[in-house]
Amino acid sequence: MAIAAAVAVLGTAGGAYGYYQYLSGKIRKGERVSGQTHAIKPKANANGDTPMNILIIGSDGRDSAEDKKLGGAADSSGDRADVIMIAHLSADRSNMSLVSIPRDTRVDIPQCTDPKTHQVYPPKNTIINESLGRGGAGCTLATVQNLTGGLYIDHWLTVDFAGVVKMADVLGGAQVCVQQNVDDHSTPEAPGGSHLHLAAGTQTVKGEQALQWLRTRHAFGSDAMRAKAQHMYLNSLLNNLRHQNVFSNPTRLNTIATAAMSAFRVSSEIATPKKLYDLGMQLKSVPSNRTTMLTMPFIEDPENKNHYVEADAAQTVWSLLRNDIPVDSNGKAKTTTPASTKPTAPAGPTAEAAATIPVTVANGTAGTADGLAVPGRAQAITDKLTAAGFTKAQASQQQAPSPTTTVTYPSSGGAQSKADAVSVGKAVGIPAASVKASTSVQGITLTVGKDWTTGTDYGATLPKAGELPTGSDALSGADDPSKNCMYVYPTYRW
Fold it and tell me: b vs e for 51-71, b when ≥16 Cβ sit within 10 Å of the residue's Cβ?
């Protein structure tokens, strides 16, 4: 809903000053991050482009009378993030993926500080939807960055119940599909329910019925199936928006933009109509068959059968996003630019001779399936570096648990230190995007993360385009809803 709303703001950049100020006054905003996290924004590629990651949060809060009427959090624990999605837009803006994280996934929520009250919340291991009530959307963002192994989240967008209804109405709804007649009612075993009542087949839902569809869980069997239903809805909504000629209709555009401004809250760095306009321009150009929606692979939480924990296969999904590898396989093969037409790269220092570069290799694989580090990883990579000419490479005896593999160099070393570090990474297949400056290291340090537990060629471990793991339940933006109708459990049929 929030992405569709951002696209809908498309016409505001050319509006009159008064209208621009009017829209500016309706934008609600908050701090981008309010929790402890060490994710670093990736550097631009050779073309000067960087990927963009947007966290979309559906809040169950009762911040208004309208939200209270529609349902939501009924206790004093604060707002909860009942929908958590990462929208990844590739650096070349050719493809987009949207990954749902089930709200009942048990994770480590870091220390967070509420930007409004300044209350400090200590770290807590609990389900991820509690993060929203422990420091706002910025706490959820920090939690997601840590969960994904340092994927940098550029922005967040939140929408509440009333916002969903507003946008569903103004955009004309979306097409969804169920295999059987559904009535998601309250039962003794599962009190509550969304009250969704639909006949079997493909239907168009809007307004409050759209909210009911997005909230339905018991009738579809689980939180993961609810995410699948949400993907169906969003796919249809975005496709409908692509085919609506709203940009030539000022009256309709005004209605959409005004509703969008009051429907969602955004992180402060994009909290102007112009910046939302720029965001919308980038999102609207991605074709349907290059848009993919999926769910983070998970397994049952051993501590609570009603909750989940991240499956090992989720690391493949996070690797795809961190390395900006397309989730779909519909892209065209990249062509090589003739040397005569290639832009001249700015001059910079070249790496020193390999034999003169000291390198410390640390084993950061602790945190794998059994919680222990894989023996011998630091030495294995040290041997590979030595064979490649880095004879000053040494394996550290201390473990340095890390979810991802990185090469860090002292910030004080400047461009020369960076060039040397890039050459170290290249020797074992680590991309330049994983080479980062740091104030906490005294020399070039290669940390073998838990994403590299075997082999000595890191590049060989990276997934290929479209190489999604089992359990991701992927849905293409080009898919017809009728081909993916939701199964309804017998108890909830009429």
Answer: bbbbbbbbbbbbbeeebeebb
